[in-house]
Amino acid sequence: MTENTGARHGGAPASRGRTTIADVVVEKIAGMAARDVPGVHALGSGFARSMGSMRERMPGAGSGKSVTRGVSVEVGELQAAIDLEIVVDYGVPITDVAGEVRENVIAAVERMAGRDVVEVNITVSDVNLPDEEGEGEERQRIQ
């Protein structure tokens, strides 16, 4: 006969194993958090966005935008470092947008992934001009 004394197997549940978070998970969290900031037009350089656009049109290549385009991370067991490449809308204060992106990304990664974000480096690679909105689509229709 076994007696149940209420004793459990050693320690708190959080100490009974290890949680590993893949880099791509942190990349997706950071990418989504950066896109949520007003004034961010897109992530990634013009070349990366063009290549991604072509990949999205290929049959069997998956659907939707790549959430991780323009995002690279280094993730350790306790910390993360994030690099972002963004395109901002014309007319917005770039330093303000970059600051908001940094704050939003840090908050999201620390809350969701439980990693201390040691740095978020932001490169503004382009400015989206109002008259550029339809140009890309127009060029794509002409073959």
N to C succession of SSEs: HEHEEHEH
Low-confidence stretches: 136-141
Question: How large is the share of residues in beta strands?
Answer: 15-25%
What is the number of beta strands?
4
At CATH level 2, the architecture is: 2-Layer Sandwich
Kindly report how far apart the N and C termini lie: 81 Å
Largest sheet: 4 strands, mixed
The overall pLDDT, averaged over residues, is 82
Protein name: Stress protein
InterPro entries: Asp23 (IPR005531)
Family: Belongs to the asp23 family.
Pfam family, one: Asp23
Note down, in words, how this protein is organized.
β3 (79-89), α3 (94-113) and β4 form a beta-alpha-beta unit. Strands 1, 2, 3 and 4 form a 4-stranded mixed β-sheet that branches. The protein has one domain (19-136): 2-Layer Sandwich (Alpha-Beta Plaits), CATH 3.30.70. The chain is α+β, with helices and mostly antiparallel strands and 143 residues long. α1 crosses α3 (94-113). It has helices spanning 23-35, 46-57, 94-113, 135-141; strands at 40-43, 71-75, 79-89, 116-128.
Write the layout of secondary structure elements.
Layout: H1 23-35, E1 40-43, H2 46-57, E2 71-75, E3 79-89, H3 94-113, E4 116-128, H4 135-141
Parallel strand pairs: 3-4
Antiparallel strand pairs: 1-3, 2-3
Helix pairs in contact: 1-3
Quick synopsis:
The chain has four helices and four strands. It is of the alpha+beta class and 143 residues long.
What distinguishing features does this structure have?
about 140 residues, alpha+beta, Alpha-Beta Plaits, four-stranded mixed β-sheet, 4 helices, elongated, disordered C terminus, Asp23
